[in-house]
Amino acid sequence: MTTSVDVVVIGGGQSGLAAGYHLRRLGLDFAILDAEAGAGGAWQHAWESLHLFSPAAYSSLPGRPMPVQAGEVYPDASHVIGYLTAYEQRYELPIHRPVRVQGVHRDGQLLRAETDSGTWRTRAVISATGTWWRPFLPAVPGRAAFRGRQLHTVEYRSPRDFAGQRVVVVGGGNSGAQIAADLAYTSDLTWVTQRPARFLADDIDGRALFDAATARRRALDAGTTDTGGVASLGDIVAVPPVREARDAGLLKASPMFTRLTTNSVEWSDGTSTAADSVIWCTGFRPALSHLAPLGLRGPRGHIPTTGTRAVGEPRLHLLGYGDWTGPASATLIGVGRPARDAARDIAELLDVPTRGSGRAART
Ligand code: FAD
What we know:
This protein is of the alpha/beta class. It has 6 helices and 17 strands. The chain folds into 2 domains: about 1-135 and about 285-360, 3-Layer(bba) Sandwich (FAD/NAD(P)-binding domain); about 150-200 and about 235-280, 3-Layer(bba) Sandwich (FAD/NAD(P)-binding domain), CATH 3.50.50. The chain has helices at about 15-25, 75-90, 175-185, 205-220, 240-245, 335-350; strands at about 1-10, 30-35, 95, 100-105, 110-115, 120-125, 150, 165-170, 190-195, 255, 260, 265, 270-275, 275-280, 305, 310, 315-320. Helix 3 packs across helix 5 (about 240-245). The longest helix is centred in the middle third of the chain and has 16 residues, at about 205-220. It is globular.
């Protein structure tokens, strides 16, 4: 079956929904194709105790504020899923699930998205597939030899699964710190970080991170001094569970080990600690394999962009993958602006008369 629309959005997580909101406002003809069976993107797979690092008011997509979650300053993942579900219903976004895009191809004047359930011909594509689906594990000697359990952040669910075990958590970012805090009370925990753990001040949360990312982008755009952005503040938001475990003396980071043996991790000075499980909280890469047929891949696996538009293919926009596709665009509050810019850019490119002013106005 072949279907034609002006714009195909690939991915129906928060980024795809923000794109849909703006495409709808401009009156464009579009479809959102999402590989998941249900709403919520990566939030559906979060571990049980995960909470946002910003209050609800700072975690909203365009048009519709996230409601406060009763009894919680920082909403949990189920609340985010509920919000995203209500959001797509409220704006009647044309989402097709589950539909996985296998490849995007040039097809004369059009682009063609081949999926596991048919072909979509389109004049423009917004790729909003996130990073959760491409976990990154570093190449550490002995990884293949280790006989215990190894898993990545994406597979972690609950401390119940590791009760009484000797667990090594690798990673000095928010995921590493939060999972280490989760395990600290019921497992024999070793937490290792590549550089000394850098906690943000206790009164700083995601609001300040968003402001820092925006200030950095403005400074770079204006050609003034790089403010250092989010990284200048620290690596770990001291959300309440992290703060509690740290203050109880349970979150002490050791340096990164140099190799794994069959049943332990070992440091360069020869010391070692036995381990039943190693949890790699070592980050993600953008999930872009569906764009491989376009041949646009640049350094570090990224596709070079101006704003959200691919430098080598003006009909393609990338949304929500990180600062390289808009400041703080990989956050709920940050994706709205680049989504708006992408939708406007596409309306102009396609020369589609838009609702309201007659053309997509650049205001
Ligand atoms: P996703 O949520 O990953 O959605 C992408 C969608 O695309 C998925 O439904 C996926 O199935 C689909 N897809 C993928 N490939 C294809 C394909 N080929 N064809 C069709 N569909 C496809 N942000 C905040 O604002 N506040 C926070 O507190 C916060 N905490 C975070 C904590 C963790 C541990 C992590 C990892 C991230 C956190 N973020 C937070 C960042 C961000 O909000 C999430 O990563 C968010 O899920 C990104 O949304 P997205 O729509 O870009 O991607």
